[in-house]
Design brief:
Order of helices and strands: HEEEEEHEEEEEEEEEEEEEEHEHEHE
Helix content: 10-25%
Number of helices: 5
Oligomer: single chain
Structural class: alpha+beta
Length: about 425
């Protein structure tokens, strides 16, 4: 076999490998995320890893903690106490530098959802802090030692609206109360995984803003519609849920994490859903999203409806967690309209229309549409009511996109109503 033949075979393999890899990466679990590089943990107070906490900060995925380090700083004085671990099992220490005034929250997300993470939060004093901990001279200002909650997949932390500052051992709330902090303050966060062969964790830090959301929901003829409204956070958790009044108006009082996208979904039985994105960065000096005008278009055979809020990781058919609320809304719509048949159409963004790999691009658009189709079927919608197709980049809304907004608009899923009755 000569060198030219070998090079030709290599080129063919490289051409098809992205398509093969793409099929293996199809999302089957909505909450699944991409692999992360591991970061270090520190098992002793003196080695606490320093984290600068801006509006949004993240640390991890970490390496697993093994043991309590060279010094066992925390010794429980009471078997029923809320202020100390029963013993340090596998600890991780962090020094948090606060860079923003506000209501401070965080989440501890175990890599293995069966791991049981407890935590303590201390107000940092000075260089003598660690010795003060050893002498039991410094008390935590927050704690959560509750038993693992399988429904929350082992996630714990501080949250706005929680009732207790300290949660003791046994069955209890997975979250403790948030902290009002000032820029320049320092805090020590110490985690303890009670499992000896446990895995690492991710830390998500945020500040919370209290907001008011108000508006009106109308049909295409400007007639008020009574609809369901769901406010969801950036990973798809429902934050608030309510119905509009008879006049289509609504007011929501809620807390939102700073600088993260939230979705506001609107649904009514005979209309297609609408999704709006809210971010506290858009509020500037205000604390209210007001006069949001939402038009719900009536369901009609042959109509195509854009689901731009269903998004994917780049070059993968893996759903972003923020897509969850949109998928739930689509599922509810299908459930309420039991005779409706739809085709899910996938599109990708390819600036200039120049193809890098026709097979990969076509497969990507097909697999993204099929991912949505699979989700609906897994929720119980009959497969006879759903089909999917991919159009690659042949139907871009913006053939020469000028910015990220136009590229995102090209990277979309559309719902084609084949039959409504």
């Amino acid at each position: 076999m000569n060198i030219r033949t070998i090079l030709t075979l290599i080129s063919i393999l490289l051409f098809f490998i992205p398509s093969i890899a793409q099929k293996k990466g199809i999302e089957k679990n909505l909450k699944k995320t991409l692999p992360l590089e591991t970061t270090n943990t520190a098992c002793d107070c003196k080695d606490a890893i320093e984290i600068n906490v801006t509006k949004v900060a993240k640390y991890g995925l970490t390496k697993p903690s093994h043991g309590f380090g060279s010094i066992q700083e925390i010794l429980s004085k009471s078997k029923t106490g809320k202020l100390a671990f029963e013993a340090e099992h596998n600890t991780a220490w962090y020094l948090l530098n606060i860079n923003f005034d506000g209501e401070f929250v965080f989440e501890i997300i175990p890599e293995d959802s069966t791991n049981d993470y407890d935590f303590l939060v201390y107000k940092y004093t000075d260089t003598g802090f660690c010795k003060g901990i050893q002498k039991n001279a410094i008390k935590p200002i927050r704690s959560n030692l509750s038993r693992l909650d399988p429904q929350k997949k082992g996630i714990t932390g501080l949250v706005s609206g929680a009732k207790s500052e300290f949660v003791g051992k046994g069955i209890g709330a997975a979250y403790s109360k948030s902290i009002n902090v000032l820029k320049g303050e320092k805090y020590i966060l110490v985690l303890d995984n009670v499992y000896p062969d446990g895995k690492g964790h991710i830390l998500n830090f945020n500040y919370v803003k209290q907001v008011v959301i108000s508006g009106i929901v109308l049909d295409a003829d400007s007639v008020p519609i009574k609809s369901e409204i769901i406010l969801s956070d950036n990973i798809g958790n429902v934050v608030h849920q309510q119905n509009t009044e008879k006049d289509g108006k609504y007011t929501i009082n809620s807390s939102m994490k700073e600088s993260l996208n939230y979705t506001l979904s609107f649904s009514s039985a005979n209309s297609f859903i609408d999704i709006k994105t809210l971010n506290t960065n858009d509020l500037k000096n205000s604390n209210a999203f007001i006069d949001i005008r939402t038009i719900l278009v009536r369901l009609k055979k042959g109509m195509k409806y854009n689901m731009s809020s269903i998004n994917f990781y780049g070059n993968l058919a893996v759903l972003l967690p923020s897509s969850h609320s949109s998928l739930v809304a689509l599922y509810k719509l299908m459930k309420e309209n039991e005779k409706m048949i739809i085709r899910i159409e996938g599109h990708i963004n390819l600036p200039g229309g120049a193809s890098r790999n026709n097979v990969f691009e076509q497969t990507l658009s097909e697999d993204r549409a099929k991912t949505v189709c699979d989700y609906l079927q897994n929720q119980g919608i009959r497969k006879e009511r759903i089909s999917s197709i991919g159009y690659s980049a042949s139907k871009m809304l913006f053939p020469n996109p000028k910015d990220e907004a136009e590229m995102s608009a090209n990277r979309r899923v559309e719902i084609n109503v084949i039959s409504i009755e």
